[in-house]
């Protein structure tokens, strides 16, 4: 039985996803090119030997796929007909988009941005599967994002750090000062964030509570935009745009506008819905299997075998990380454009912390990939450039790295190891399963 509102949902979702993907891609376009503004760390060491010009091919493939899906979805929507425009070509575009995205990530782990990961998988669902299968699976995919996002915040690290910052940003945005509030008060407010996210997830899952949970989800995203917007923490604009997308996506997926489908006789179904080749059925099963694996893989994140962002650890802080330090004198050997991202040394210390997260936002328009493996690669790239300018008679290390393990869930404590000099820092890269060595990086 064919459900017209499901097809309408599918078309609007494809149009919305393709549009927002192109907007965010344009804001972060430097990230997806073979740039030399910021170190690139491939997923595998052997990729360093491949010319980075391949990036242009995969970027062009992503843009072509997204533009095609945008145009065809808009044309199908305006046509107001049950028949899709070039459904098989749309299927090819959805598959090519995912392959091009994966190729981009292989060349630089920094590109595994959560919005790009979501859009590549979401458009694969919507272009390969028929509406009666695509919409329910897409809903589960969205609910898994909310669920794992809430789960990643259920630890002491979030309550003690980022959760408090979000609470401070929210109240600051509405003109309420938290300067004299106790840390315990801010921690209780921070603890309510994942609880609310869990309630929204389960509320959206059940039809009876879906509409209440929908408006709660809209309120949650508006509140988050207030906390991280210009009046609050003033985070980069891509996060605000992504939250606008989530609001539209939730309205399309869960609002009652699409809850009363009309049915028509099976003989009136379009040809592309009635005809399905063995290849199509095999591809559909493969996509369904892939999405279920994607929805289950975040359970491995606490073990260290799955990365933080693909596990939807959004605004969570328990992951392992590195702190990169540069000698105060070596700081002045850096290009003038990079010196603003190096803090002043602490009293009685000669070591200055380099804020690579600010560098990433300023030069690429994208947040820093949070995995310690990637951040180590960035530190090695800068360390090599700094060591090249070291006088031959100087034996003191000019760079230092502090590796902080994942935070304990209950106490928030971390195990800290320090590495002095580039040789010790490079030795740390051998401890990771995936590559932590950067491409050659000319620090100009």
Report what the structure shows.
The protein has about 450 residues and is mainly α. It folds into two domains: about 1-305; about 320-430, no CATH class. Helix content is about 55%, strand content about 5%. The protein is built from 16 helices and six strands. A four-stranded antiparallel β-sheet has the order 4-3-5-6. The longest helix is centred in the first third of the chain and has 26 residues, at about 55-80. The chain is globular.
Label this structure with key terms.
two-stranded antiparallel ribbon; globular; mainly alpha; four-stranded antiparallel sheet; 444 residues
Total helical elements:
16
Shape: globular
Order of helices and strands: EHHHHHHHHHHEHHEHEHHEEH
The number of E-state strands comes to: 6
Describe this structure in a few short sentences:
With 444 residues, this protein is mostly helical. It contains 16 helices and six strands.
Helices and strands, with pairings:
Elements: E1 2-3, H1 4-27, H2 54-79, H3 87-107, H4 114-128, H5 131-152, H6 156-160, H7 162-173, H8 183-205, H9 210-228, H10 237-254, E2 263-264, H11 271-274, H12 278-296, E3 321-327, H13 328-331, E4 351-353, H14 356-364, H15 372-388, E5 399-404, E6 416-420, H16 422-428
Antiparallel strand pairs: 1-2, 3-4, 3-5, 5-6
């Amino acid at each position: 039985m064919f459900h017209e509102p499901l097809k309408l949902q599918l078309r609007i979702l494809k149009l919305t996803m393709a549009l927002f993907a192109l907007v965010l891609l344009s804001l972060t376009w430097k990230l997806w090119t073979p740039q030399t503004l910021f170190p690139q760390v491939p997923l595998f060491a052997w990729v360093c030997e491949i010319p980075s010009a391949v990036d242009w091919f995969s970027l062009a493939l992503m843009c072509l796929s997204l533009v095609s899906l945008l145009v065809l979805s808009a044309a199908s929507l305006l046509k107001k007909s049950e028949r899709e425009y070039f459904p098989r070509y749309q299927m090819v575009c959805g598959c090519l988009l995912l392959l091009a995205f994966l190729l981009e990530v292989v060349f630089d782990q920094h590109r595994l941005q959560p919005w790009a990961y979501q859009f590549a998988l979401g458009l694969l669902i919507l272009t390969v599967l028929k509406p009666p299968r695509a919409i329910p699976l897409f809903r589960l995919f969205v609910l898994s994002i909310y669920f794992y996002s809430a789960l990643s915040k259920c630890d002491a690290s979030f309550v003690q750090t980022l959760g408090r910052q979000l609470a401070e940003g929210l109240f600051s945005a509405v003109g309420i000062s938290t300067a004299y509030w106790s840390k315990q008060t801010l921690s209780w407010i921070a603890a309510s964030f994942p609880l609310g996210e869990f309630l929204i997830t389960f509320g959206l899952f059940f039809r009876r509570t879906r509409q209440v949970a929908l408006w709660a989800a809209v309120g949650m995203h508006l509140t988050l935009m207030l906390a991280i917007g210009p009046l609050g923490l003033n985070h980069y604009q891509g996060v605000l745009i992504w939250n606008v997308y989530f609001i539209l996506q939730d309205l399309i997926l869960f609002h009652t506008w699409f809850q009363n489908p009309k049915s028509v006789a099976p003989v009136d179904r379009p040809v592309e819905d009635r005809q399905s080749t063995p290849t199509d059925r095999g591809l559909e099963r493969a996509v369904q299997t892939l999405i279920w694996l994607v929805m289950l893989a975040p359970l491995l994140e606490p073990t260290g075998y799955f990365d933080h962002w693909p596990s939807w650890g959004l605004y969570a802080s328990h992951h392992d990380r590195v702190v990169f330090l540069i000698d105060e004198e070596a700081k002045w050997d850096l290009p003038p454009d990079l010196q603003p991202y190096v803090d002043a040394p602490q009293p009685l210390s000669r070591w200055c912390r380099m804020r690579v997260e600010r560098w990433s936002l300023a030069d690429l328009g994208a947040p820093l990939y949070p995995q310690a493996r990637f951040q180590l690669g960035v530190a090695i790239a800068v360390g090599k450039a700094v060591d090249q300018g070291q006088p031959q008679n100087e034996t003191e290390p000019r760079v230092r790295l502090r590796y902080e393990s994942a935070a304990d869930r209950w106490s928030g404590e971390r195990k800290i190891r320090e590495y002095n000099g580039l040789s010790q820092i490079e030795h740390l890269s051998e401890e990771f399963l995936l590559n932590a060595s950067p491409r050659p990086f000319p620090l100009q």
